[in-house]
Amino acid sequence: MKDTPLSNCERDFLLKAIEEKKRLDGRQTYDYRKIKISFGTDYGCCFVDLGQTRVMAQVSCELVAPKENRPNEGIMFFNIELSPMASPGFEQGRQSELSVKLNRQLERCLRNSKCIDTESLCVVSGEKVWQIRVDVHTLNNDGNLMDAASIAAITALCHFRRPDVSTQGQEVTVYSPEERDPIPLSIYHMPISVSFAFFQQGTYLLVDPCEREERVMDGLLVIAMNKHREICSIQSSGGIMLLKEQVMRCSKIAGVKVSEITELISEALLNDRKARKAGGKCGFAESMPQERITALKKDETPVEMTDVTETANGIIQKGEAAPQTVPSPVVPVPGVGQVGQGLQNSWGLEDDDEDNYEEEKNDNSGDEQVEEVTKMDVGEGDVVEISDSEEEEVVILNPEVPEKLKNTGSKSHQKGAAASKKRQKK
Amino acid sequence: MFSTVRERVGEVLLPGDEFSFEAEEKISLTAPVKSEKVVCGPGLRRCGDRLVVFKSGVLRHKEPNVFWIDSQQRRYVPAKGESIIGIVIAKSGDVFKVDFGGSEQASLSYLAFEGATKRNRPNVQVGDLVFAQFLIANKDMEPELVCIDSSGRANGMGVFGAGGLLFRVSLGLVRRLLAPHSDIRSDLEQLFPCELVVGMNGRIWVKSATVQQTLIIANLLQSAETMTAQQRQQLFRKVQQGAF
């Protein structure tokens, strides 16, 4: 899809406003938009909001063989995805010019600056090293994706914890998070990029351009710096001529902004660590603000309630009582298959099957199947004893057992039968 | 059925709710039977002998028999007779291609302006804004715009002059602004003099004396979307006192 075109009137107005030092949202020339950083439940996942621009970064790791010319160093891989969610002009899968530019800039900012100690990622020299992969997804484009992506990437890297490993000679044991606490990456410094947009052939400059401003700008200067005022990368695009004093001024401004942003990131990481230690709930659900639209709000909403009691009574009467105990399991003879056996063709029974399917769809793993099933049974008003053990034997379902009981029976069986039923449905 | 629909005016309805034409009311044999006509507006559709709701929102009514659902959305679907603000994207032969925020581009013939003839072409460049209304707008054909009404007069439509700011709002706000006795409009009138063009596709063009005032009005309208009347009046009053 194509982006909405920019009309002449908007362009003229924006340029005129910039000449009068006015921005669309009322910011000053050197002001950043409001930055909000939130973390997910997994280590290494973070969302960054820069005004309306929204990106998500996810860090993951994997043990791989190292590159031939660098047997002692781990591998870092960066990827920025411009998703069609962000803007109608972005197409899925197509490498547009902007995407190439952003990827290149992020690599220069993070890889060439050597902010991560890659030698600490080596496990067995020449054979196994950690490959750290940073994926940045753009969720909404309101300008200045580069800055948002760089903040998200470095924050996610600081937040990430990789599994602990130990080596005995050539053998490598990777410990799961339950066995040993995962360890953070060793990060030397946090490079953050700051974007400057130039207008009228370099006469006017704005920090953190929004989408409209980006459309009318003449050129862009991106400076990546860390809080120790070390420049990690400078890139100027758009072909404008910049004076030496302008570049010096921009680097001074960048220094100030980077230290502010670094403080914000450290604070966010600290808050998250405290929340996790205190055992509180952490994750996106907690950090999403309650956004309520209060216009047209009614205090009382009239809802059709006339026949609710009759319908509820009808449902309760129709539902039969589930059995109190699990019917005695039948152990199959070895070699007898259980997939698909013992179940009647249940295509005609739509309600129950749909309920089953809905429940199973929500499962993440077979382990949770048991809990889900318990909830559903309890919901029907009866308590069914289901063993918590995950190692019960798999059973064959008898066709003579009545429909309802059979379905309940099938649910209370273990991973094997339930998973096979899941596979059937899929 | 008219009465059943009437009772639910002002209620929140969800897609799938329906009103059926069942003959529940007793038909009197002696009194004359008046034919009930129900005009369905946006959000209501006739499905066989039922009236089905397909958008979630509040059911509204206008005398004598017009019903529609008031819903919120930002994506514009073209409808015949609605006036919109479009951006001219291309000139191909005798036709301008205009983007109005829909799934397709609309075509606008150069003869569809007041006083335009083959020799006397209108002064429209690529990137200009036009205020036009839909002549053809259905799902089977390419939408077509015109800048004149049925009698050949411009009636306020045509190319925009220079200056001013264009911004986007939701369709609900646009309808509230265009309603006959709109609160928002009357509040806005007390602020400062400005020129306002409201397109039904969610685009608004504002022009005021200074850049600052134009920006203020644009920001006020964008934030008025999610405010109650009281909050909005408070905000407008604050701006009025702060403005000079």
TrEMBL record, chain B:
Q: Which Gene3D superfamilies match?
A: 2.40.50.100, K Homology domain, type 1 (3.30.1370.10), Nucleic acid-binding proteins (2.40.50.140)
Where it sits in the cell: the answer is:
Cytoplasm; Nucleus, Nucleolus
Residues forming the Exosome complex component RRP40 N-terminal domain are: 35-65
An example Gene Ontology molecular-function term: RNA binding
Pfam families on file? KH_6 (PF15985), RRP40_N_mamm (PF21261), RRP40_S1 (PF21262)
Q: Where is the K Homology domain?
A: 164-212
Q: Which CDD domains match?
A: KH-I_Rrp40, S1_Rrp40
- Keywords linked to the UniProt accession: Cytoplasm, Exosome, Nucleus, RNA-binding, rRNA processing
Q: Which InterPro entries match?
A: Exosome_RNA_bind1/RRP40/RRP4 (IPR026699), KH_dom_type_1 (IPR004088), KH_dom_type_1_sf (IPR036612), NA-bd_OB-fold (IPR012340), RRP40_KH-I (IPR049469), RRP40_N (IPR048541), Rrp40_S1 (IPR037319)
Q: Name one GO biological process term.
A: U4 snRNA 3'-end processing
Any one Gene Ontology cellular component term annotated for this protein: nuclear exosome (RNase complex)
* Family listed: Belongs to the RRP40 family.
Q: Which PANTHER family match?
A: EXOSOME COMPLEX COMPONENT RRP40, PNAS-3 RELATED
Identification of the protein by name: Exosome complex component RRP40
